[in-house]
Amino acid sequence: MNLQLNDVQQQLLDSLTRLLGREYSFEKRQQYVTDDNGHSAETWRTLAELGVLGAAIPEAFGGFGGDAVDEMLVSQALGRCLSLEPYHGTAVMAAAALGAAGSEQQKAKLLPRIAQGDVSVAWAHGEAVPGGVSVQAAAGVEGWCVFGSKPCVIHGAGSDYLVVSAQVPDSGVRLFLVNGHSVGVQRDSYRLIDGTPAADVRFDGAQAELLDGDAGSAVIERVLALGISAACAEMVGAMQGAYALTVDYLKTRKQFGRLIGANQALQHRAVDMLAALEQSRSLSLSLALALAGRNDLATGPEQVHAAKVYIGQTARQVTQEAIQMHGGIGMTEEYAVGHYLRRVLVLDQLHGDTRYHLGCLEGRPRH
Amino acid sequence: MDLLYSEQHKAFRQEIREFIAGNLPDDMRQRLRAGGFASKADTELWQRRLNARGWGAPAWPKAFGGAGWDAAEQQIFADECACAPAPPPHIFNITMLGPVLIHFGSDAQREYFLPKLRNADIQVCQGFSEPGSGSDLASLKTRAERTADGYLVNGQKIWTSQAHYSDWIFCLVRTDPGATKPQSGISFILIDLKSPGITVRPIISIDGRHSLNEVFFDNVLVPAENLVGEENKGWDYAKFLLGHERAYIAGIGRSKERVAYAKDLLARLQAEGRPADMLAPWRGRIAMIEADLHALEVTQFRMHGGHADMKLSPMLKARGSEIFQAITDVICRMSGTDALRADTGTLTKSFLYSRAVSIFGGSTEVQKNILSATVLDLR
Predict the structure, then answer these.
(1) Do the chains contact at B3 and A268, CB–CB below 8 Å?
(2) How far is it, in rounded angstroms, from Cα A206 to Cα A183?
(3) How many Cβ atoms sit within 10 Å of the Cβ of residue A42?
(4) Chain B within 8 Å of A355 (Cβ-Cβ)?
(5) Taking CB atoms and an 8 Å limit, are B296 and A289 in contact across chains?
(6) Nearest by CB to A282, which of B288, B298, B379?
(7) H helix and E strand count, chain B
(8) Which residue of B has its CA nearest to A356?
(9) What pLDDT shows up at residue A171?
(10) Which residues in chain A (58-77) have CB-CB distances under 8 A to chain B?
(11) CB proximity list for B218: less than 8 A, separation 6 or greater
């Protein structure tokens, strides 16, 4: 049992925290929302320079050889500052998909560029029915083509590439790499409620490259597990942000001639937020360590579903309580606390919502 | 970063598992598993077997006949006992009184009591709460007046578990009613329950069972040498004592045992042909309680490993209580009307009794007050 960060992780976290403290205040973040590409190109470059984007990419492909634990640390920090950067799709999902399903050649082509921040990749898997894939792949003269639609692809409008899941006749669901700018890709872009850029993407015979490494049947499960772990960590970061604002507010806001934090009713609810946050932090840590293969307490495949449900629920609880305890100011666009709930709404839907994963735990048939 | 057990700890766990499997009487195990209490005889038998193996007092130093285990080993032992389920080492003898005597007792007290506590030759109970002093323990009124013959004790204790079959009681008593702070006029004293003037009356709890008592002291004369440590320092000793519950405060093993029971029950219902649609919500509920419990165990590791604030310790108590109550509730509900029978419905009785875990040992509300003041700095 050793929960100490190693030197590389400590250094990564320190420099990341400094960067975000400098470049990602809530005010700056709100300016990035209004930028055309919906994030801060400069921060993205710095994330690459600091080694954040390549933290979990193998050294052979230009990364630092870390794993799900490094992604947890980064995602938590990004969640806390309501990051808009395409980290999740590019550095977590695409890197995981290439790592799990890509050939050596495909890895060599993209992973170093991901680590350097030269390319952004979006994860286009989820559809209207969680767990279901209706996009079809067909083999043509010039290789594979994909047909169909993926709704709500995060950072899908501006991404250079998309990793797309599609049904392959007689072979089930496989992952493909599609150039975002190729013919037959139509992207209808919009912003999500938290400001994140997203797009509905239609594939009309777009050329696609099959990730044709040694792809077992559980590849998508594995990639999703890594994505869920990172999404959970990001929710923990968001909870931390909302919790910290709330405790500060309880110590500054006065009503009836005294600090509102002097009321036991509010003290106990703030303690409940703390407990939910710490429990979620522990669950997120345990999941990341399980995926990294260093957890004797790991509870098997159910752990992924349980973490998503648990943290999805606590993140809602904590961010909603944060708004309630702020009162009117918590309801305003110009104050940060409500934005944490907006972010949590998006993260809850990412990779299957609470209800879907609870269904998995209940042993109900999956689609 | 990892959550891996060392080879040494894995072997240690295995050794304990094997000992329990070979030494815990099956009827005792079945009784505990069905939600029953360990009887005086159960506790005596198990404590003596542990003691014969050298494990009677996990946290005591070897010089006093303890196992001398470190915190991690104590935790593994506590969890393995709870998972069996086997009774833990006698909570009042071993976890509470022993360490106080080792640190603050006289040589004579150590010599007389420690071997007997370890072997359950005497069983002690705890006299802290009073009718007017529950959460506000420092307001306690039971008076011990110094006389030429010793201390003259008058007053009443309540919620005294096991007083009806214990031999001794360790009490917090007021020795200086004029002290400036209520905490500073309290002493820690050992009283033989056979002393003239003591009356023990049963309290039947909502589960219909008898584990709690009231203890009345009417001019009970206690030899002066039964005072532990210094007069009026009892509050400090009590705080020290409560700090020794560390391996038990979250009740991880206790709740793990109940989760395993719930899963067995679910499998049995499935085998009996209950519809899948009826069982699915239970499966989900158990999985989520298990996740909560898993998170609490990791939180405990974070704290004990120095990677989370030790001030979070009241959270282990509060959340541990809620988790235990939740899984006990699920088991009771899943059992349906079978568990409702007053004669055989031990699962309902254990559910009803589970409502006490968020009250005793510092209620959940008190734990939250402490967290609010110490971690959040709200006052």
Answers:
(1) no
(2) 6
(3) 10
(4) no
(5) no
(6) B298
(7) 12, 8
(8) B284
(9) 86
(10) 69
(11) B154, B197, B198, B199
From first to last of its 367 residues, chain A has per-residue pLDDT tens of 889 999 999 999 999 999 999 999 999 999 999 998 899 999 999 999 999 999 999 999 999 999 999 999 999 999 999 999 999 999 999 999 999 999 999 999 999 999 999 999 999 999 988 889 999 999 988 899 999 999 999 999 999 999 999 999 988 999 999 999 999 999 999 999 999 999 999 999 999 999 988 666 789 999 999 999 999 999 999 999 999 999 999 999 999 999 999 999 999 999 999 999 999 999 999 999 999 999 999 988 999 999 999 999 999 999 999 999 999 999 999 999 999 999 999 999 999 999 999 999 999 865 4
Rg (CA), chain B: 22
Q: From the CB of residue B161, how many other CB atoms can be counted at a distance below 10 Å?
A: 17
A358 contacts in B (CB within 8 Å)?
A: 284, 288
From chain A, pick out residues whose CB is under 8 angstroms from the CB of B295.
279-280, 282-283, 286, 310
Residues across chain B: 379
Number of A/B CB contacts below 8 angstroms equals: 142
Residues of chain B positioned with their CB less than 8 A from the CB of A267: 368-369, 372, 376, 378
Of A9, A274, A310, Cβ closest to residue B371: A274
Q: Which residues of A touch B369 (CB under 8 A)?
A: 264, 267
Question: Catalytic residues of B, which ones?
Answer: 245
If DSSP codes are grouped into helix, strand and coil, which group holds residue A199? Answer: strand
Tokens coding B56: 């009677």
Using the CB atoms, write b or e for B337-362: b if 16+ within 10 Å: eebeeeeebbbbbbbbbbebbbeebb
Structure token pair of residue B346: 């031990």
Dihedral, CA of residue B59, residue B62, residue B64 and residue B65, to nearest 10: 90
CB contact at 8 A, A197 and A159: no
Is the CB of residue B3 less than 8 Å from the CB of residue B298? yes
What DSSP state is assigned to residue A95? H
A332-364 CB burial, b ≥16 within 10 A, e <16: eeebbbbbbbbbbbbbbbbbbbbebbbbbbbee
End-to-end Cα spacing for chain B: 36
Which 285-314 residues of chain A touch chain B by CB within 8 A?
Answer: 285-286, 289, 294-297, 299, 302-303, 305-307, 309-310
Which among A137, A139, A159, A161 is positioned nearest to A148, based on CA atoms? A137
Amino acid of residue A156: G
In degrees, rounded to 5, the angle at the alpha carbon of residue B243 between the alpha carbons of residues B237 and B244 is 100
Backbone angles phi, psi at B124, to 5 degrees: -110, 160
Q: Contact A3/B301, CB-based, under 8 Å?
A: yes
What is the number of alpha carbons within 13 Å of residue B274 lying toward its C-beta?
A: 16
Nearest CA in chain A to B303: A3
Cβ-in-10-Å burial (0-12, 13-18, 19+) of A8 comes to middle
Q: Report the residue from B305, B315, B372 with minimal CB separation from A278.
A: B315
Report the DSSP beta bridge partners of residue B158: B214
